[in-house]
# Entry
Amino acid sequence: MATATAPDLRLRDSEEIQGDILAGFKKDNVSVLFLKFEDAARARDWLRRLTPQIATTREVTAFNEAFSEARRTSGGDDPKTLKATWLGVSFTYEGLRMLSATDPFPQPPPVGTGLEAFKEGSARRAGALGDTGDNSPENWLFGNEGTQPVHAVLKLSADTEKDLQAAVEAQRIAAAECRVLIVYQQNAQTLLGSRRGKEHFGFKDGISEPGVRGFDRPAPDRPEEVEGHPGTRIIPAGEFVCGEEPAPGSFRDFPAWTHGGSFQVVRRLAQDVPGWWSQAGVKLKELRLAKAVPDGATTEWLAARMVGRWRSGAPVCHFRDHDVPNDPGAASDNDFDFRDDLEGLVTPLWSHLRKTSPRAGLQAPDPGQPPLDAKALDGRRIMRRGTPYGAPFDPASEGPGGPDDPRGLLFVCYQADIQRQFEFIQADWMDQPDFPPGRNPVPGKDPVTQEAPDVDFESRESNGSIKHTPLSFAQFVQTTGSVYAFMPSLSTLRGLADGRLVGPAAGGQTGQTGQTGQGGQGGGQSQTQTRPGGQSTAVGGPAYPCDDFLPVPDQWRRGGRSQFWVGHGDRYRKISVADGSAHTDQVVKGDTPLSSHPCFQGVGRIDCVLPMPDLQNPGGKSWYWVFHSTGGRQQYRAVSISGGGGHTGALERPDRDLTSWASLGGVERVDCFLPVPDQQRVGGKSWYWCFHTTGGRQQYRLISVADGAAHTDVLERSDRQLSQWGSLNGVTAVDCFLPVPDAQRIGGKSEYWVFHGDSYRRISVADGSGHPDRLVSGARSCSAWNSLSG
# Structure
């Protein structure tokens, strides 16, 4: 006896795909934060902290299954003990470009594709979508490309309002610490009581969401439909997740960085509920005068035909005369296709239900041909995740909100191709009077969401002929904000936090994962690295080992640039590093032998330099302790460097042994010092972490140096292992630290480039107790620095 093949449900276990795309957060309380980045480096730090909090498909799916099972067990009540708060993040084109410091599309995206739509953004494409007049971008609350551009969209969803508020507050603090501005915040909430699951006009929403191949379990007897949901088609996953197999004819040539991600449309749609219902009553009177409706037709009857379903969700095609609010099966009925109503006499051709998803009720272009199969429209489906906002108002019952209170739908949808899916549905179906095509008179626009001056109401005369009654509908849904964004995979998020725009590694869990790279074109000859601030650049020649950096005394952040002397072996050179996200570096003066300066006579290599804390630029001269090795033994000397064009150096005190430092007892060789950021010249004392090699292994200790002629030093804390620094994970020995010039003591944190061998990384150290450290960007080749190559 043959054994049934287990269905492919691999996407349910994905830890790459963000959880809202396929599984859906499905929470009662939602807040969407529209964010602007003030500084790219700080934004990467923000993203690095955020990424571990992002909900994956696997997490959300497991919770939703447990929640549904608990509801079944309790007879339909929501479980009180099962709670979760989910986060999802997406980025606009400009947001991706700022984080990666490169153009996401090195070559212009193909014309007429969703990639082009994403790059152009919602505001520039508003006219083609009917967003004109009161709906035009200049009236939007966000996404209008004005002085507050949107770089990222953070969606938070929670079971309780209290949990949501706590999550939003935590994200507000995290954003403020990294100079990420909240341009706009939109809260939304599932309506309560009898309105639960409905939008503000009063109709049940979300019934017709598609199933997804590889995620939803197919019905044994109808494998193209979701088990337990007759009529709900299973759509190829590539229509919603880039890099997966799409429907035939859909776009496939996505860059590798998009794999495992989905393009997101977010729209704030204001609803005038009293106006909409009042209009339905007026139009019913017109139809009665024209004798185009049954004698028993009510306002509810006409409104149901405008939507295509009754308030309960019951489809008009199965329940023509009245609603069945107490029939739960009817409320979730999705098993119909309009094949038996091609003229739209029962469910009008212009109804919202048919305009957004014609199913198998769309006739082929050639006369006499049968209607198209629903499968032919798989490439036009979207995944909706909208939530109502504002207090409800319903003319059929008493509500808590007044007629003029702000209310509407926070519309969110996911798709692989914004142009082919969302925009096509909006512009070519909903906003197109001549859809379905080839009708005379034309059916008209969708009267639920559009201004529809040309609707053709069809009815049957007593003699069997079709009667056409023209109707004109005003618009009572207004677009008040819109953003096109991209919700990346978890791997792409981690890459962006490191300043790189790459896709999931081969063998990931998203399905068809691609090779990394900007355009998805594997096998190229050139290799790239990332500049100190994140810019991609060609790999140069071999990098010099950096022994230490010494800031040029009077050239710190002058004109937006800082200059340093960098030692490497028996030579040094002068370089500069610019402020800003890219931190562009360049050579100011080429290699010079150490021996050419009197203060470095007899020094074969500088191990590290420590500025004397209270002797920086008094009288135009700055003093330093220089640690260097001679004959296998480390010593130190005191030198000074004057300000001005020549920066003349002088030997102030000759070499001494390390034993002169009380805080360095037992140390064989000092490798580098890192100043404790918030403990410099506090109470006449400065603190440092001293990294040293003793017994062939690098460790670190905490010391202090007092102001004054003696510069008394004290061992404040004994040696510890490098493993205590999470930001130095994988580093066996630090060569030197270089402070990021424009990231010192910003928001209570200081950032540094850490050089180790031929690599460097970027870390941050926080002020306060414990001085928590964090990896800002992982190890990269030093050859990414123009000033350190050659």
